[in-house]
Write a structure and sequence with these properties.
The complex is a heterodimer of chains A (237) and B (239). Chain A is mainly α. Chain A contains nine helices and no strands. Classes of the chains: A mainly alpha (237), B mainly alpha (239).
């Protein structure tokens, strides 16, 4: 037990500071991936609700593929595919040798692509939950298309989407651990490094699990408050 | 640009990993289902000594990444080699195969028990009272009234969980098991043709998931016979 305190401590070669740093990388990676995923998800949801059959097909394809294929495969695709593309770009510009893509950027993009596919379904469901009368009323008030979206539809869409987005966020947080396979030193990778160099895997993976739990419960609570306490909450009977 | 011969070359290699993917998924889904039913039923108990440990188990396994759970089982418990040998379990925890199955099973148990718990709660209380009033024992009430309704209610959510488990088996490749994703990663790092390998491996997973979704839809259809074959007099009376 004393041993665990020393290993996870902040002095005498303890790994506490490194793990907390890595946990903040995990949070940053997840937040950026989730935010970029909101853009992809929003576009895909718009595509799925669009009149154009081509756009509907493309958006459905995106959602089906990235929700149906293991996240690891998507990460490998972006990492290796990105490196190959960058290398051939480098060669065409007269350079030579292998160009690797930066792990953090690739990880963010991978999380965005995957979570975007899940977020699209959430946004689509939220849009469909908005009463047709709201569209009609906004039209009747003479608002133009942009005003209708910004002032009438988006505020309602967001609050219908919030519970679903909370679920996707939890998924993103846990998915971020997979980015460790491309060498980004986030919480999972840092725990692996510490486990390898101290030969104490049990303690470090337990510590990582507890840190993930802590992040999940703090952020989960924040979503819950946003849902329940915000002045724009959905009023129920 | 697209080289079909390359596809034909890698497809059999990737398909060779499919039995292992399905084996991992099937074993953990079946074992996880049995455990999930047990935990969901145990949580109907009023005793906090039963309910609180289960809540804790569920919270931990749903709140941490599957990868951490697999590493903790394989590398973490590997540290206790002597203690595990002493109780004869080292033969199990030495194998990445069994460690992956244990971690996947516990993970799906946690999610599954929550789905089933919700489904059991959704069974209207009046039906339970009706069962009691015709003299059914607690066992018969669960066996003939609550569980059949709960399983049908749970089916769509449980289907999602099954798809997630199929995807989850890909993490077994990180503890050296060569299932479809493991083989795909090997092929990518040999050939550097990430896109083609992704398409091919992705198609295998999508086909598998699609088949599962269709099978579950058929099961749901079969389980809701009573909702379709309503006697016409009933709907007349209702209107």
């Amino acid at each position: 037990m004393v041993d665990a305190f020393r290993l996870l401590g902040f002095q005498n070669g303890g790994w506490g500071a490194a793990l907390l740093m890595a946990a903040s990388v995990t949070v940053l990676l997840s937040v950026l991936g989730f935010a970029l995923g909101a853009v992809f998800g929003g576009l895909a949801a718009a595509g799925r609700l669009h009149n154009s059959q081509l756009l509907r097909f493309l958006a459905l394809g995106y959602c089906t593929v990235f929700r149906g294929v293991p996240d690891l495969l998507t990460i490998y695709l972006l990492y290796y595919g990105g490196s190959v593309a960058l290398t051939s770009l480098g060669h065409s510009l007269g350079g030579s040798g292998f160009v690797g893509v930066p792990a953090f950027a690739t990880g963010t993009l991978a999380i965005a692509v995957i979570s975007g596919a899940y977020q699209a379904e959430v946004y689509r469901g939220a849009y469909l939950a908005i009463d047709q009368g709201q569209h009609d009323a906004a039209c009747a008030l003479g608002l133009n298309r942009l005003q209708r979206l910004r002032q009438v539809i988006f505020p309602q869409l967001l609050r219908y989407a919030l519970p679903g987005l909370g679920n996707v966020w939890q998924l993103v947080l846990k998915d971020s651990s997979l980015i460790s396979v491309i060498g980004l030193v986030e919480l999972m990778r840092q725990a692996q490094i510490a486990a390898g160099s101290t030969r104490e895997p049990f303690i470090f993976y337990i510590a990582a699990a507890l840190l993930y739990l802590a992040i999940a419960s703090v952020t989960g609570n924040a979503f819950y408050r946003l849902e329940r306490k915000a002045p724009w909450r959905v009023r129920s009977a | 640009m697209i080289d079909f011969r390359f596809f034909l070359e890698i497809l059999p290699k990737l398909l060779a990993g499919l039995p292992l993917t399905m084996e991992l998924a099937l074993t953990s889904i079946v074992a996880g289902f049995v455990l999930a039913v047990t935990l969901a039923l145990a949580q109907q108990s009023e005793s906090p000594f039963v309910v609180l440990p289960i809540r804790g188990f569920v919270a931990v396994f749903r709140g941490t990444p599957l990868l951490v759970q697999i590493f903790l089982t394989y590398y973490g418990l590997g540290q206790f080699r002597h203690q595990l040998s002493a109780i004869g379990l080292w033969a199990v925890f030495r194998e990445p195969y069994w460690c992956a199955i244990i971690a996947l099973t516990l993970n799906t148990t946690a999610y599954g028990s929550e789905i089933l718990r919700g489904a059991i709660q959704s069974v209207p209380h009046g039906l339970v009272e009706a069962a009691r009033s015709v003299g059914l024992s607690t066992y018969s009430t669960y066996r003939h009234v609550i569980l059949p309704l709960a399983f049908r209610q749970a089916l769509p959510s449980y289907g999602n969980e099954i798809i997630l488990m199929i995807k989850g088996t890909s993490l077994a490749s990180i503890v050296t098991l060569m299932e479809v994703t493991g083989i795909a990663q090997g092929l990518i790092s040999q050939t550097y043709r990430a896109f083609e390998v992704f398409i091919c491996a992705g198609a295998i997973y999508l086909t598998l998931n699609f088949a599962i979704i269709r099978a579950l839809a058929a099961l749901e259809y079969w389980m809701s016979r009573h909702l379709r074959q309503r006697p016409s007099t009933m709907s007349d009376a209702a209107s």
